[in-house]
Structure formats: structure tokens, C-alpha cells
Fold:
Amino acid sequence: MSSVMDRRLAVAKLLDSRNDALVITGLGSPSYDVHAHSDADNNYYLWGAMGGAALTGLGLAQAQPGKRVMVITGDGEMLMAFGALATIAVARPTNLDIIVLDNQHFGETGMQNSHTGMGIDIAKVANATGFDATDTLTTLDEVDELCGKLALPASGPRLFVLKIEAKNLPRSLPPRDATYIKTRFRGFLGLQPC
Amino acid sequence: MKEPEVSVQNLNWPTALYETLKAANVQHMAYVPDAGHTELINLLNNDAQVITNVLTTEEEGIAIATGTWLGGLRSVVLMQSSGVGNCINMLSLPVQSRTPLLMLVTMRGEWNEFNPWQVPMGKATQASLEAIGVTVLRAETPQDIVEITEQAITMAFEADGQIAVLLSQRLLGKKTW
Structure:
């Protein structure tokens, strides 16, 4: 499958239509992509804990059932948490959307090929576990359609793979102080620091 | 801290632990099952006020608990000592973000253990948790469990601590084969 989408343009479309969605980003380029568009109090950026993005999203979605949670992560990060797809499917939150930015490579570490370039289809795996909606998108026009779809209520978790260009763009670094990001994010929800 | 009202000998500690968690407003639980946790898992799974997640591997619970706190809910993560080994890198998330974390870990490999495969991780459990920055407390008696968990709850949710309570295998009894 050709990977032609510009990741920053795709992420910009998702964030332009986020409304008040709470956003969790997987370590590496997804965190940079979201930060490059706009820093926001309701962004929670991971700088580590590979494999934790979708599950942090699950915990948040369960704690805030009235708000939409959007996880934006990469293929390598999602591959490390394949079991999470089963856990999320069984938990069945209706307010959790997972966006996998799939360049079929481990981009942060030297562009080694990842499993998704060798036949593994994350959307099919999510579908097999029982996600409510899954798809693989290859064009920005399809992302526009997806933004409309994401605005509609869901009856279970949704996962969408966006095939993007395998290119390391200039980094846009979000704050690395994890307590600051936590406290700022909780403040957005009206929650107090310790 | 108030004394438990039931006698130590007759204390049904899983029920006491459940009541302690409920009194502290813990509304979420994530788990990989362990025989020693059976009763507590059942009590929490049957409580409509508690959201529960069964996990495929223990580190999932660490990330989920971080997310629930981000959203304002208190979580407890239940696992066996062997599962602690699966959690180490994911524990950097609550440790680095100073996010409250309460783990209740049933021990294997340390007392009357029949299965030698349980011994290496049993020996490494406390050292591994401390190495990544988690505070470890051990409960050796039913009374210990309640008192230690009560104060672990304070340390976790009021002092932004990452706390593991280890429930000793001597307390849990020998697994019958």
C-alpha cells in the first residue's frame, strides 16, 4: 500500500475538528505532530511508556464518560500494545477513538521497517477483537470524511489507521515535565492538584 | 487510625479490603487474576459502582490507572508477583508524572512454594518495584492488610505516591495441587 499522506496535514484535520475532545499522544512523532498544530491544556503528551497511549486513553474515557477521548499514536507504539486492543474491546467504551499514524517504520530510531510494512494490518486486528468501527485511510479526503464520522456518537471503541509518509519532519517538542502536563490536563477538567 | 472491629483471627480480609477500598472511594479496578485475589476480584466485579478491566498483561493496568486519575477516578491494580516483572517500564509513567498508583500484589515464590518457576520473580518483586521508584509495603497478617492498605491509600491518592502493597504468601496459604 502506498503511504502518501502528510502526517501533519492529517493530524491538523483531526485537531481542527476535535471540539473539546481530550487528546492523548503516543511517544515520538505523534506527540510532535499534535504539538506542531497547537499546544492545549486538554492534550496529554507521552514521552515514554511505549505501549501505554491507548490504555491511558481507556482509563481516561472510563473516568470521563461524557467526553470524547482521542488517542493519536504510531504503528510501533500500537504494535507494542496489541493486547490492549483486546482489553479495550472488552471494556467497550463508547467515547474512545484511536488514531494510528502508520508510516510502517520505527521512525524515531532510524526508520527500521515495522510489522505493518510486512503484512500486519492493525485495523483488521482491531476489527477482529470487536471494535465498533475500524478502517485504513490513505488520502486526506478520507480523513475529512473521518472527521465527520468521529463527530457522531459511537456504540463502542473505534480505531482508524492513517497511512502516512515515512519522513521525519522538524520536531515540535511538547513540554517534557510530566507533572506539569498532568496538572494542567486535570485543571482543564476542573480537578485539583495534590 | 481506628482499629478494625472484627477480631484478627476471624477477619475475612478480602471483604475487609473491599470495604477499605470502598470507604476510600476507589471506583475502578484493573486486574490479571490470581488465586489469592479471587474473592476481592469477585466483590469488585459484582459492584455496579466500580468499573473493572480484565487485562491481557499487568502493565496495561498501570497505564489505565494513570488515565483514570487524569480523569478524576481512583483506581486499584490487582496482580500476582510474577506480573510485577511485566510492569517495570510502564511504571515510569506514574512515577515520572507523580500520578497516584495503588497496586495490591499477591506474593508467590516465597513461602511453602511448590513451583520453582515462581521463585525468581518472587525474589525480585520488591527489589524491582523499588528500583523503578515505587514504594513497597508488606502485609503479613489479615490485620496488617487493612491497616497498611488504608495508609497506602493516603500515600497514593493524597500524597501523589506510587505504592505497592505486597500480600505475603504465608498469609495467603499454600496453593493446593
